Amino acid sequence: MINIKEAVDSFTPWQEELYIHLHQHPELSMQEKETCDTIDAELTRLGYATQRIGGGVVGVLENGEGPAVLFRADIDGLPVKEATGLEYASTQTRTDTDGNEVPAMHACGHDFHISCALGAARIFAENREAWAGTYIALFQPGEETAAGARSMVADGLVDKIPAPAVALGQHVLAGPMRAGQVGTHAGAILSTGASVKVTLHGKGSHGSMPHLSIDPVVLAAAVVTRLQSVVAREINPFKMAVLTVGSIHAGSKSNIIPDTATLLINIRAYDMDVREQLLDGIKRTVTAECEAARAPQAPEFEIYDSYPLTNNDDATTAKVTQAFLAHFGEERVMDCGEVSASEDFSVIPDAFGIPYTYWGFGGFAEGAPTYPNHNPAFGPVLQPTLATGTEAAAVAALAWLARD
User: Fold this and answer.
1) Domain that holds residue 38
2) Residue 110, annotated as binding a ligand
3) Is residue 144 part of an annotated ligand binding site?
């Protein structure tokens, strides 16, 4: 038997130093070269056989006969300017896909995910006598753009590593768990999601001559207002659905009516039929408003950042939950319920055709100010968050790998 807590406590200085380095050096999606170099070096030092696959890193540690367990961590940061006030805050800028220099921050906690996964990898490397089988530590790029898991699969992941029996993953969250707690949930836990870029076409004119224009700004305003009825009046109120217009861009000067306007829309749902209903509602509503405005050209739709539903296997979730209860105790384990965020994690186990479970762990202390993921002030407390995530990763995998 491995004393997981003692094992984690034994390397706390190393892990905290690693975490701070990662926090200070975030990289944007599908550009995580320095991050992958750090991960690869740590896994190699621990005795893992490593491969670079689809922009990510996979380390495999074989330890006799037994099942293979895959634990996945995502590794990318976000184009967000950090406002946590932490003494180790990121001051990095990175070049985005449009060639612009933008601030970068681990505003979604992927620095915790990497550090916890490397901590779990170290536990397995240093305690081989207590388990049997194969441990697969997978570090995935590009989660924030829904590109990374598909990139690894497209680069031959299924053929390049041992076939796992189960896949595991986790995410640090602002709630409902507090720091030191973990939360599991059987069935749908993370929503399916997608973004839609809508380009509206009008007819430009001088701002003093609106009668000679077809104003895409007014058209955009009508579209935004009308879209509010898709969820409110078309979706069954017992079904979860979110439709958010997160960006409107049109024009450059107050006295110029532009030719085009662009909307960026995001949707979430726990039901694939609802997802399709939302997409249909967007296209139908936008098209109708363009026709009403006499737009000279049909609107254009581009669907991107498409995320699958994360639907936890019942038996796998029950097994992990029982392992958590035995390790953490009832006061630190809860049912976290459904979370409206989305993930591409399930793309990997689905490619192997294996069951999976995905859980959350808390990052903010009881009574402390709490900021959601993707907020510039998202700064989970270092401990016990780091230790809890590391223990959870190891405990979950040991539910399959521990020697009898």
Assistant:
1) 4-189+309-401
2) yes
3) yes
